[in-house]
Amino acid sequence: MTPLILAGATAAGAIASLAVLSAKGAGLLLWPLAVATLGAAWLLMTRLSNDRQADARFGWSVPAIFGLSLLFAWEVVTRGFDIPRVLLPAPSLIGAALLAQAAILFADFQQTVLKSVIAGYLLGNGSAFIIALLVDRSPFLQRGLLPLGNLVSAIPIVGIAPIMVMWFGFDWPSKAAVIVVMTFFPMLISTLAGLQATDRMQRDLMTSYGASYGQTLLALRLPAAAPMIFNALKLNSTLALIGAIVAEFFGTPIVGMGFRISTEVARMNVDVVWATIAVASVIGSAFYGTITLIERRMTFWHPSFRKARG
Amino acid sequence: MNRVSHALSRSLPLVFVLAVLALVWLAASVWLNAPQITDLWQRNGKTAWTTAELIDAAWSQERPLLPAPQQIYADLAKSFSARLDSPRNLLFHTWVTGSAMASGFGLGVLLGIILALGIVHVRTLEKSLMPWVIASQTVPILAIAPMIVVVLGNLGLTGLLPKAVIAMYLCFFPITIGLVKGLRSPDPLQLDLMRTYSASPSQTFWKLRWPAAMPFLFTSLKVAISIALVGAIVGELPTGAQAGLGARLLAGSYYGQTIQIWSALVVSAILGMALVALIGLIERFALSYQAAPKAAGGAK
């Protein structure tokens, strides 16, 4: 029952602190209340993370409480200390901006995510995968490409954005082109490395079954490569979003998340900027999460997905 | 003899791939720039030209769509001959970006190590913080970069600090993840042995966990330093920063100076590779007491 009492205490403390904040008269009361609330939240999280039964059923609750505590602390500190809005708006203000500007934010989302990111992501990963399969047949090319791939990973590729804008114009194709180049090499290297991930024993077994190259690829080597390929896909999901937004700083039509951020910063509408960032974060997490889900479905046999036995 | 042939078999493929890339580049710069030139010639009433003339013109344009490598080389050589403290010299811009990157990287390493230690040793932190460490990376921080720079600029903080903050936020993540993985890499047998020796927790940490984590740490440091460089460059984009490689990219993009953009790109690429190579050297030096460093990560 203790977790329930702690949860109640946390919630009550949070509500009381926010009420005091709105009343604006009891500054002295606010800080002990807020600190006590965060303390109760910490105890609750400790309690939940040490409880194996709760862990199995409410594994999501601990990070959720942590996130809410963070938002709470942000709200209390920004409003309690009267931090200027330009510096850091309170979460409640950002939420209000999200609702007020929903139509504009949705148009930006369409432009940046549905056009640039998805096109660039599919093209970049797809072409890298196909080229990796072709290169896989030639050890000579592999020895040439692997060190090159490692070199390229050290290069700030986002810098090609202005060149792509010159080649492909202001609209989404130039952003997609930046994403293609950014995502190509991580995927190429991971796929090549993944295709090497089988034991000689396993490959010998396929040979003794008289399996052809294609059959060995489909039945053994691609499944074995899947964890590494998915790693690259997850890494690229964040890279793609970042690439699209940064590329928009170098010239866009008058819509898009990167465009919104750079113009609203100049106009000091920081709450709209934060709302855009909130949207981008949710999209980024959802993108990453979707790929993780697909990975679980496809590589359920991998040790990292086995249930931990206590 | 054997060593020579071994080195050849390793370097020949790379040389071959690079040669192919260079040829593709040269051909592409002709193919992309030619239409502009022929267009101009026809308007000036020039109807016949040889291929050699066309190639020559394509490789010597003022603002080519794709400059040839030798044009970039000439531009770099011209830039490096300027005085070191003048904005004409790319080394000056490299220093501006590099110093922001280095301070951000230092801070990021510190933050990354502290977070990893907390996550490994405090269960509550592991449960509550780890998902958010991962989530924090889905925030396109590079997108916040202009805002951080503008906001800190309003506070009167300009120059190096905002860029360093951006670089720090970007590079703590791989370090935290890699170090958490590394500190957990000793297998139960080794941990049991430490218990048999009745080692204290701190002895177990310094004699087993920390050394075991080193290969993982250096792998993530290589990733982190290249991300920190991207952060420093992007941090220079807003407010039309006067100095730095990012500022050169943006200025070149405004005025259509393609050769300038490419020069800045080439220098940042070289800087990125040099930094990763430097980490690799330190790794060799630091891990020389161990057997050959095993590759961190990968399937067990």
Order of helices and strands of chain A: HHHHHHHHHHHHH
Distance between the termini of chain B: 36 Å
Rg of chain B, nearest Å: 25 Å
Average pLDDT, all residues of chain B: 81
Q: Could you give the count of β-strands of chain A? A: 0
Measured distance between first and last alpha carbons of chain A: 23 Å
How much helix, percentage-wise, in residues of chain A? over 70%
In terms of quaternary structure, the protein is heterodimer
The secondary-structure class of chain A comes to mainly alpha
- Helix amount of chain B, in percent? over 70%
Low-confidence stretches of chain B: 292-300
CATH class of the domain at 90-289 in chain B: Mainly Alpha
Full CATH superfamily name of the largest domain in chain A: MetI-like
SS elements, strand count of chain B: 0
What is the 3D shape of chain B? Answer: elongated
| CATH architectural type of the largest domain in chain A | Orthogonal Bundle
Which homologous superfamily in CATH is the superfamily of the domain at 90-289 in chain B?
MetI-like
| Helix count, DSSP H or I runs of 4 or more residues of chain B | 11
Largest interface: A-B, 68 and 63 residues
CATH fold call of the largest domain in chain A: MetI-like fold
Structural account:
Chain B: It is found in: Cell membrane. Chain B: Its main location: membrane. Chain B: It comes from Elstera cyanobacteriorum. Chain B: Keywords: Cell membrane, Membrane, Transmembrane, Transmembrane helix, Transport. Chain B: It is a multi-pass membrane protein. The complex is a heterodimer of chains A (310) and B (300). In chain A, α1 runs parallel beside α4, α6 crosses α12 and α12 runs antiparallel to α13. With 310 residues, chain A is mainly alpha-helical. Chain A has 13 helices and no strands. Chain A folds into two domains: 81 residues; 214 residues, MetI-like fold, CATH 1.10.3720. The radius of gyration of chain A is 25 Å and the shape is flat. In chain A, 79% of the residues lie in helices and 0% in strands. With 300 residues, chain B is mostly helical. Chain B has a domain of 200 residues: MetI-like fold, CATH 1.10.3720. Chain B contains eleven helices and no strands. In chain B, α4 runs antiparallel to α9, α6 packs across α7 and α10 packs antiparallel against α11. The longest helix of chain B has 42 residues. The radius of gyration of chain B is 25 Å and the shape is elongated. At the A-B interface, α2, α4, α7, α8 and α11 of A face α1, α5, α6, α9 and α10 of B.
